[in-house]
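Write out a record, focusing on structure:
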Amino acid sequence: MATAVETLGKLERRMTISFPLADVRTEVEKRLKQQAKTAKAPGFRPGKVPLKMVAAQYGYQIESDVLNDKVGRAFSAAANENLLRVAGSPKIDARDDSPEGVLAFDATFEVYPEVAVGDLGAVEIETVEADVSDAEIDKTIDILRKQRVHYHTKGEAGEHGDGGEPIAASGDRVTVDFVGMIGGVEFPGGKADGYAFVLGEGRMLPEFEAATTGLAVGASKAFDLAFPEDYHGKDMAGKTAQFTITLTQLEWAHLPAVDAEFAKSLGIEDGDAEKMRADIKVNLEREVAGRVKARNKEAVMDALVKVTDMDVPKVMIAQDSERLAEMTRRDMTQRGMDVTNMPFPQELFATKAERRVRLGLILSQLVSDNALHATQEQVKTQIEDFAQSYEDPREVMKYYYSDRQRLAEVEALVLEENVVNYVLGKAKVTAKAVAFDELMGSNAQA
Protein backbone atom coordinates (compact mmCIF):
# COMPACT_ATOMS: atom_id res chain seq x y z
CA MET A 1 0.00 0.00 0.00
CA ALA A 2 1.20 3.53 -0.75
CA THR A 3 0.05 6.96 0.36
CA ALA A 4 -0.61 9.86 -2.00
CA VAL A 5 2.50 11.35 -3.58
CA GLU A 6 3.75 14.43 -1.74
CA THR A 7 5.52 17.19 -3.69
CA LEU A 8 8.63 18.44 -1.89
CA GLY A 9 10.16 20.53 -4.70
CA LYS A 10 10.13 21.03 -8.44
CA LEU A 11 11.25 17.47 -9.05
CA GLU A 12 11.42 15.93 -5.57
CA ARG A 13 8.57 13.71 -4.37
CA ARG A 14 7.82 11.50 -1.37
CA MET A 15 5.43 8.67 -0.67
CA THR A 16 4.95 6.24 2.18
CA ILE A 17 4.73 2.56 1.37
CA SER A 18 3.67 -0.10 3.86
CA PHE A 19 2.83 -3.79 4.11
CA PRO A 20 1.96 -6.28 6.87
CA LEU A 21 4.82 -7.57 8.99
CA ALA A 22 3.26 -11.02 8.73
CA ASP A 23 3.88 -11.03 4.97
CA VAL A 24 7.56 -10.42 5.58
CA ARG A 25 7.79 -13.17 8.17
CA THR A 26 6.00 -15.62 5.89
CA GLU A 27 8.36 -14.89 3.02
CA VAL A 28 11.42 -15.08 5.29
CA GLU A 29 10.33 -18.46 6.61
CA LYS A 30 9.72 -19.71 3.08
CA ARG A 31 13.21 -18.69 1.97
CA LEU A 32 14.83 -20.14 5.08
CA LYS A 33 13.23 -23.51 4.33
CA GLN A 34 14.48 -23.26 0.76
CA GLN A 35 17.96 -22.43 2.03
CA ALA A 36 17.85 -25.35 4.46
CA LYS A 37 17.61 -27.81 1.56
CA THR A 38 21.23 -27.10 0.59
CA ALA A 39 22.69 -25.66 3.81
CA LYS A 40 25.85 -27.25 5.22
CA ALA A 41 27.16 -27.32 8.78
CA PRO A 42 29.77 -29.41 10.62
CA GLY A 43 28.24 -32.69 11.91
CA PHE A 44 25.22 -32.55 9.60
CA ARG A 45 24.58 -33.94 6.17
CA PRO A 46 23.73 -31.34 3.48
CA GLY A 47 20.07 -30.46 3.74
CA LYS A 48 19.73 -31.84 7.27
CA VAL A 49 20.87 -28.75 9.18
CA PRO A 50 18.23 -27.72 11.80
CA LEU A 51 16.14 -24.71 10.74
CA LYS A 52 17.22 -22.74 13.83
CA MET A 53 20.87 -23.07 12.80
CA VAL A 54 20.00 -22.06 9.24
CA ALA A 55 18.16 -19.03 10.60
CA ALA A 56 21.11 -18.07 12.79
CA GLN A 57 23.47 -18.27 9.82
CA TYR A 58 21.36 -16.86 7.01
CA GLY A 59 18.40 -15.17 8.68
CA TYR A 60 19.70 -11.58 8.69
CA GLN A 61 20.66 -11.61 5.01
CA ILE A 62 17.42 -13.31 3.96
CA GLU A 63 15.31 -10.84 5.96
CA SER A 64 17.23 -7.95 4.39
CA ASP A 65 16.69 -9.38 0.90
CA VAL A 66 12.96 -9.88 1.54
CA LEU A 67 12.55 -6.30 2.76
CA ASN A 68 14.44 -4.92 -0.23
CA ASP A 69 12.33 -6.98 -2.61
CA LYS A 70 9.04 -5.99 -1.04
CA VAL A 71 9.92 -2.30 -0.77
CA GLY A 72 11.18 -2.30 -4.35
CA ARG A 73 8.08 -4.00 -5.73
CA ALA A 74 5.74 -1.80 -3.69
CA PHE A 75 7.53 1.35 -4.84
CA SER A 76 7.51 0.29 -8.50
CA ALA A 77 3.82 -0.56 -8.32
CA ALA A 78 2.98 2.79 -6.70
CA ALA A 79 5.12 4.70 -9.24
CA ASN A 80 3.36 2.95 -12.12
CA GLU A 81 -0.05 3.53 -10.58
CA ASN A 82 0.69 7.25 -10.25
CA LEU A 83 2.24 7.43 -13.75
CA LEU A 84 5.54 8.66 -12.30
CA ARG A 85 8.77 8.69 -14.33
CA VAL A 86 11.25 8.13 -11.53
CA ALA A 87 14.79 9.46 -12.03
CA GLY A 88 17.44 7.33 -10.38
CA SER A 89 16.80 5.26 -7.26
CA PRO A 90 14.62 6.37 -4.33
CA LYS A 91 16.00 7.02 -0.85
CA ILE A 92 14.24 4.65 1.54
CA ASP A 93 13.87 5.44 5.27
CA ALA A 94 12.02 3.27 7.79
CA ARG A 95 9.29 5.11 9.69
CA ASP A 96 9.25 4.99 13.50
CA ASP A 97 5.49 5.54 13.78
CA SER A 98 4.36 2.41 11.94
CA PRO A 99 1.14 0.85 13.33
CA GLU A 100 1.56 -2.44 15.16
CA GLY A 101 2.02 -5.31 12.75
CA VAL A 102 2.84 -3.02 9.84
CA LEU A 103 6.15 -2.00 8.26
CA ALA A 104 6.18 1.48 6.76
CA PHE A 105 8.85 3.31 4.79
CA ASP A 106 9.24 6.78 3.33
CA ALA A 107 10.47 6.78 -0.26
CA THR A 108 11.97 10.11 -1.33
CA PHE A 109 12.80 10.43 -5.00
CA GLU A 110 12.99 12.69 -8.02
CA VAL A 111 11.00 12.54 -11.24
CA TYR A 112 12.08 13.34 -14.76
CA PRO A 113 11.36 16.93 -15.75
CA GLU A 114 9.07 17.98 -18.53
CA VAL A 115 11.35 18.80 -21.45
CA ALA A 116 9.98 21.54 -23.66
CA VAL A 117 12.49 22.43 -26.36
CA GLY A 118 12.14 26.04 -27.46
CA ASP A 119 11.50 27.35 -30.96
CA LEU A 120 14.36 25.93 -33.02
CA GLY A 121 13.38 28.14 -35.94
CA ALA A 122 14.43 31.19 -33.94
CA VAL A 123 17.79 29.73 -32.94
CA GLU A 124 20.93 31.16 -34.59
CA ILE A 125 23.83 28.75 -35.05
CA GLU A 126 27.21 29.47 -36.58
CA THR A 127 28.76 26.42 -38.22
CA VAL A 128 32.28 26.09 -39.57
CA GLU A 129 33.71 24.73 -42.79
CA ALA A 130 37.27 24.22 -43.99
CA ASP A 131 39.10 23.04 -47.10
CA VAL A 132 42.29 21.08 -47.64
CA SER A 133 44.53 22.92 -50.12
CA ASP A 134 47.92 22.12 -51.62
CA ALA A 135 49.48 24.30 -48.90
CA GLU A 136 48.12 21.98 -46.19
CA ILE A 137 49.42 18.95 -48.06
CA ASP A 138 52.85 20.59 -48.33
CA LYS A 139 52.85 21.38 -44.58
CA THR A 140 51.96 17.79 -43.80
CA ILE A 141 54.76 16.51 -46.01
CA ASP A 142 57.18 18.82 -44.19
CA ILE A 143 56.02 17.41 -40.85
CA LEU A 144 56.45 13.86 -42.13
CA ARG A 145 59.94 14.74 -43.34
CA LYS A 146 60.88 16.17 -39.94
CA GLN A 147 59.64 12.97 -38.30
CA ARG A 148 62.19 11.11 -40.45
CA VAL A 149 65.08 13.51 -39.91
CA HIS A 150 68.57 12.12 -39.36
CA TYR A 151 71.68 13.97 -38.22
CA HIS A 152 75.28 14.18 -39.46
CA THR A 153 78.37 15.73 -37.90
CA LYS A 154 78.40 19.33 -39.02
CA GLY A 155 81.44 20.32 -41.08
CA GLU A 156 82.31 16.78 -42.15
CA ALA A 157 81.71 15.95 -45.80
CA GLY A 158 79.30 13.12 -46.53
CA GLU A 159 76.89 11.90 -49.19
CA HIS A 160 74.44 14.66 -48.20
CA GLY A 161 77.04 17.44 -47.86
CA ASP A 162 78.78 18.92 -44.83
CA GLY A 163 75.97 21.02 -43.33
CA GLY A 164 77.84 24.28 -43.72
CA GLU A 165 80.05 26.19 -41.29
CA PRO A 166 80.63 24.09 -38.13
CA ILE A 167 79.07 26.48 -35.63
CA ALA A 168 75.78 25.91 -33.81
CA ALA A 169 72.73 27.34 -35.58
CA SER A 170 68.97 26.96 -35.44
CA GLY A 171 67.90 23.45 -36.46
CA ASP A 172 71.20 21.85 -35.38
CA ARG A 173 71.29 19.14 -32.73
CA VAL A 174 73.80 20.17 -30.09
CA THR A 175 75.28 18.17 -27.23
CA VAL A 176 76.58 20.20 -24.29
CA ASP A 177 78.03 19.90 -20.82
CA PHE A 178 76.76 22.58 -18.49
CA VAL A 179 76.83 23.66 -14.89
CA GLY A 180 74.68 26.31 -13.24
CA MET A 181 75.18 28.14 -9.95
CA ILE A 182 73.14 30.51 -7.83
CA GLY A 183 75.20 32.61 -5.48
CA GLY A 184 78.25 30.50 -6.34
CA VAL A 185 76.58 27.24 -5.31
CA GLU A 186 75.46 24.50 -7.65
CA PHE A 187 71.73 23.78 -7.45
CA PRO A 188 69.90 20.48 -8.00
CA GLY A 189 69.33 19.81 -11.70
CA GLY A 190 71.72 22.58 -12.69
CA LYS A 191 74.46 20.30 -14.03
CA ALA A 192 74.58 17.76 -16.86
CA ASP A 193 77.07 16.12 -19.20
CA GLY A 194 76.21 15.05 -22.72
CA TYR A 195 72.86 16.84 -22.78
CA ALA A 196 71.41 16.95 -26.33
CA PHE A 197 68.72 19.21 -27.76
CA VAL A 198 67.76 20.82 -31.07
CA LEU A 199 68.27 24.56 -31.31
CA GLY A 200 65.12 26.44 -32.20
CA GLU A 201 62.62 23.89 -30.84
CA GLY A 202 62.12 25.86 -27.65
CA ARG A 203 62.99 23.04 -25.26
CA MET A 204 65.48 25.26 -23.44
CA LEU A 205 65.03 28.76 -22.06
CA PRO A 206 65.83 31.53 -24.58
CA GLU A 207 69.05 32.62 -22.79
CA PHE A 208 70.36 29.05 -22.93
CA GLU A 209 69.68 28.69 -26.66
CA ALA A 210 71.13 32.15 -27.40
CA ALA A 211 74.35 31.27 -25.54
CA THR A 212 74.71 27.98 -27.43
CA THR A 213 74.08 29.52 -30.84
CA GLY A 214 77.35 30.37 -32.60
CA LEU A 215 79.57 28.01 -30.58
CA ALA A 216 81.97 25.58 -32.21
CA VAL A 217 82.77 22.14 -30.79
CA GLY A 218 85.04 22.51 -27.75
CA ALA A 219 84.09 26.14 -27.16
CA SER A 220 82.66 27.29 -23.82
CA LYS A 221 80.57 30.24 -22.77
CA ALA A 222 79.45 31.75 -19.46
CA PHE A 223 76.16 33.60 -19.20
CA ASP A 224 73.41 34.64 -16.81
CA LEU A 225 70.01 32.99 -17.01
CA ALA A 226 66.96 34.50 -15.30
CA PHE A 227 64.39 31.83 -14.46
CA PRO A 228 60.81 33.04 -15.00
CA GLU A 229 58.53 33.54 -11.99
CA ASP A 230 56.32 30.66 -13.15
CA TYR A 231 59.20 28.26 -13.75
CA HIS A 232 58.24 24.66 -12.93
CA GLY A 233 61.18 24.30 -10.56
CA LYS A 234 59.96 26.33 -7.57
CA ASP A 235 63.44 26.60 -6.00
CA MET A 236 64.74 28.42 -9.08
CA ALA A 237 61.64 30.39 -10.06
CA GLY A 238 62.38 34.12 -10.23
CA LYS A 239 66.10 33.67 -9.55
CA THR A 240 69.12 34.37 -11.77
CA ALA A 241 71.74 31.66 -12.24
CA GLN A 242 75.23 31.78 -13.71
CA PHE A 243 75.76 29.03 -16.29
CA THR A 244 78.82 27.76 -18.12
CA ILE A 245 78.27 25.57 -21.17
CA THR A 246 80.69 23.64 -23.36
CA LEU A 247 79.68 22.36 -26.79
CA THR A 248 80.86 18.75 -27.17
CA GLN A 249 79.05 17.65 -30.33
CA LEU A 250 77.41 19.43 -33.25
CA GLU A 251 75.15 17.78 -35.84
CA TRP A 252 73.11 19.19 -38.70
CA ALA A 253 69.68 17.96 -39.69
CA HIS A 254 69.21 16.20 -42.99
CA LEU A 255 65.59 15.92 -44.11
CA PRO A 256 64.79 13.16 -46.61
CA ALA A 257 64.03 14.29 -50.15
CA VAL A 258 60.46 14.01 -51.36
CA ASP A 259 61.15 11.20 -53.78
CA ALA A 260 60.08 7.65 -54.53
CA GLU A 261 61.83 6.28 -51.43
CA PHE A 262 60.06 8.80 -49.25
CA ALA A 263 56.70 7.88 -50.80
CA LYS A 264 57.41 4.19 -50.22
CA SER A 265 58.15 4.90 -46.56
CA LEU A 266 54.59 6.24 -46.32
CA GLY A 267 53.08 3.07 -47.75
CA ILE A 268 52.94 3.99 -51.44
CA GLU A 269 54.29 0.74 -52.89
CA ASP A 270 55.29 2.06 -56.33
CA GLY A 271 56.73 5.30 -54.89
CA ASP A 272 54.48 7.54 -56.98
CA ALA A 273 54.65 11.06 -55.51
CA GLU A 274 51.22 12.05 -56.84
CA LYS A 275 49.63 9.01 -55.25
CA MET A 276 51.34 9.99 -52.01
CA ARG A 277 49.87 13.50 -52.17
CA ALA A 278 46.43 12.09 -53.00
CA ASP A 279 46.66 9.69 -50.06
CA ILE A 280 47.69 12.50 -47.71
CA LYS A 281 44.82 14.64 -48.98
CA VAL A 282 42.28 11.88 -48.32
CA ASN A 283 43.56 11.46 -44.76
CA LEU A 284 43.57 15.21 -44.14
CA GLU A 285 40.05 15.57 -45.52
CA ARG A 286 38.86 12.78 -43.22
CA GLU A 287 40.45 14.52 -40.24
CA VAL A 288 39.04 17.90 -41.26
CA ALA A 289 35.57 16.41 -41.69
CA GLY A 290 35.77 14.96 -38.20
CA ARG A 291 36.89 18.26 -36.67
CA VAL A 292 34.21 20.21 -38.53
CA LYS A 293 31.54 17.74 -37.43
CA ALA A 294 32.70 18.01 -33.80
CA ARG A 295 32.71 21.83 -33.88
CA ASN A 296 29.26 22.00 -35.47
CA LYS A 297 27.87 19.42 -33.08
CA GLU A 298 29.15 21.46 -30.15
CA ALA A 299 27.46 24.57 -31.57
CA VAL A 300 24.16 22.68 -31.85
CA MET A 301 24.43 21.33 -28.31
CA ASP A 302 25.15 24.81 -26.97
CA ALA A 303 22.05 26.09 -28.78
CA LEU A 304 19.86 23.30 -27.40
CA VAL A 305 20.99 24.02 -23.84
CA LYS A 306 20.19 27.72 -24.26
CA VAL A 307 16.78 27.20 -25.84
CA THR A 308 15.56 24.57 -23.36
CA ASP A 309 14.67 25.70 -19.86
CA MET A 310 14.27 22.85 -17.39
CA ASP A 311 15.32 21.49 -14.03
CA VAL A 312 17.72 18.56 -13.90
CA PRO A 313 17.36 15.75 -11.33
CA LYS A 314 20.14 16.03 -8.76
CA VAL A 315 20.37 12.26 -8.44
CA MET A 316 21.22 11.95 -12.13
CA ILE A 317 23.93 14.62 -11.84
CA ALA A 318 25.41 12.77 -8.87
CA GLN A 319 25.37 9.45 -10.73
CA ASP A 320 27.04 10.94 -13.80
CA SER A 321 29.61 12.76 -11.65
CA GLU A 322 30.51 9.41 -10.14
CA ARG A 323 30.86 7.88 -13.60
CA LEU A 324 33.10 10.72 -14.77
CA ALA A 325 35.25 10.41 -11.66
CA GLU A 326 35.66 6.68 -12.26
CA MET A 327 36.46 7.23 -15.94
CA THR A 328 39.12 9.77 -14.97
CA ARG A 329 40.60 7.42 -12.38
CA ARG A 330 40.70 4.56 -14.91
CA ASP A 331 42.25 6.78 -17.61
CA MET A 332 44.98 8.03 -15.29
CA THR A 333 45.73 4.48 -14.17
CA GLN A 334 46.06 3.33 -17.79
CA ARG A 335 48.54 6.17 -18.34
CA GLY A 336 50.72 4.69 -15.62
CA MET A 337 49.81 7.11 -12.82
CA ASP A 338 49.37 5.86 -9.27
CA VAL A 339 46.00 7.24 -8.13
CA THR A 340 45.50 4.85 -5.21
CA ASN A 341 45.42 7.63 -2.61
CA MET A 342 44.27 10.43 -4.89
CA PRO A 343 40.83 11.87 -4.06
CA PHE A 344 38.31 12.28 -6.86
CA PRO A 345 35.61 14.51 -5.32
CA GLN A 346 32.43 14.42 -7.39
CA GLU A 347 32.08 18.21 -7.13
CA LEU A 348 34.94 18.51 -9.63
CA PHE A 349 32.79 16.80 -12.25
CA ALA A 350 29.38 18.27 -11.34
CA THR A 351 29.33 21.01 -13.99
CA LYS A 352 30.24 18.66 -16.81
CA ALA A 353 27.85 16.03 -15.47
CA GLU A 354 24.98 18.52 -15.28
CA ARG A 355 25.51 19.47 -18.93
CA ARG A 356 25.73 15.84 -20.02
CA VAL A 357 22.53 14.92 -18.20
CA ARG A 358 20.71 17.99 -19.49
CA LEU A 359 21.72 17.24 -23.07
CA GLY A 360 20.80 13.59 -22.65
CA LEU A 361 17.27 14.55 -21.62
CA ILE A 362 16.94 17.06 -24.46
CA LEU A 363 18.22 14.64 -27.09
CA SER A 364 15.95 11.87 -25.80
CA GLN A 365 12.95 14.18 -26.10
CA LEU A 366 13.87 15.30 -29.63
CA VAL A 367 14.44 11.72 -30.76
CA SER A 368 11.11 10.61 -29.30
CA ASP A 369 9.13 13.56 -30.68
CA ASN A 370 10.64 13.48 -34.16
CA ALA A 371 11.46 9.79 -34.79
CA LEU A 372 15.21 10.41 -35.03
CA HIS A 373 16.27 6.91 -33.97
CA ALA A 374 19.38 5.41 -35.58
CA THR A 375 18.60 3.00 -38.41
CA GLN A 376 20.57 -0.18 -39.13
CA GLU A 377 21.73 1.27 -42.43
CA GLN A 378 23.03 4.42 -40.72
CA VAL A 379 24.91 2.34 -38.16
CA LYS A 380 26.44 0.20 -40.90
CA THR A 381 27.53 3.30 -42.84
CA GLN A 382 29.13 4.80 -39.71
CA ILE A 383 31.08 1.62 -38.97
CA GLU A 384 32.23 1.40 -42.58
CA ASP A 385 33.46 4.98 -42.29
CA PHE A 386 35.43 4.08 -39.15
CA ALA A 387 36.87 1.04 -40.91
CA GLN A 388 38.23 2.95 -43.90
CA SER A 389 41.16 4.34 -41.94
CA TYR A 390 42.39 0.84 -40.98
CA GLU A 391 44.44 -1.64 -42.95
CA ASP A 392 41.81 -4.39 -42.73
CA PRO A 393 38.33 -2.81 -42.78
CA ARG A 394 36.61 -6.20 -42.54
CA GLU A 395 38.23 -6.92 -39.20
CA VAL A 396 37.04 -3.55 -37.91
CA MET A 397 33.49 -4.31 -39.04
CA LYS A 398 33.65 -7.65 -37.26
CA TYR A 399 35.04 -5.94 -34.15
CA TYR A 400 31.98 -3.70 -33.83
CA TYR A 401 29.32 -6.23 -34.78
CA SER A 402 30.69 -8.86 -32.38
CA ASP A 403 29.95 -6.76 -29.29
CA ARG A 404 26.56 -5.29 -28.44
CA GLN A 405 28.13 -2.57 -26.27
CA ARG A 406 30.35 -1.35 -29.11
CA LEU A 407 27.37 -1.38 -31.45
CA ALA A 408 25.35 0.65 -28.95
CA GLU A 409 28.11 3.27 -28.84
CA VAL A 410 27.94 3.63 -32.63
CA GLU A 411 24.15 3.86 -32.47
CA ALA A 412 24.49 6.68 -29.94
CA LEU A 413 26.83 8.57 -32.28
CA VAL A 414 24.41 8.17 -35.18
CA LEU A 415 21.50 9.28 -33.00
CA GLU A 416 23.40 12.44 -32.01
CA GLU A 417 24.16 13.11 -35.67
CA ASN A 418 20.47 12.73 -36.51
CA VAL A 419 19.62 15.30 -33.87
CA VAL A 420 22.34 17.67 -35.10
CA ASN A 421 21.07 17.45 -38.69
CA TYR A 422 17.49 17.93 -37.54
CA VAL A 423 18.34 21.05 -35.53
CA LEU A 424 20.48 22.51 -38.33
CA GLY A 425 17.55 21.95 -40.67
CA LYS A 426 15.32 24.06 -38.44
CA ALA A 427 17.65 26.77 -37.14
CA LYS A 428 19.01 29.93 -38.75
CA VAL A 429 22.45 28.71 -39.78
CA THR A 430 25.42 30.87 -40.79
CA ALA A 431 28.47 29.10 -42.21
CA LYS A 432 31.91 30.46 -41.39
CA ALA A 433 35.10 29.44 -43.15
CA VAL A 434 37.96 28.71 -40.75
CA ALA A 435 41.64 28.32 -41.52
CA PHE A 436 43.02 24.80 -41.58
CA ASP A 437 45.54 25.52 -38.81
CA GLU A 438 42.85 27.02 -36.56
CA LEU A 439 40.60 24.01 -37.04
CA MET A 440 43.33 21.44 -36.45
CA GLY A 441 44.41 23.28 -33.33
CA SER A 442 40.93 23.03 -31.80
CA ASN A 443 39.67 20.22 -29.57
CA ALA A 444 35.95 20.62 -29.74
CA GLN A 445 34.08 17.98 -27.77
CA ALA A 446 30.40 17.56 -27.16
Remarks:
- The longest strand covers residues 240-254.
- The chain has a mean pLDDT of 91.
- The CA atoms of residues 383 and 397 lie 6 Å apart.
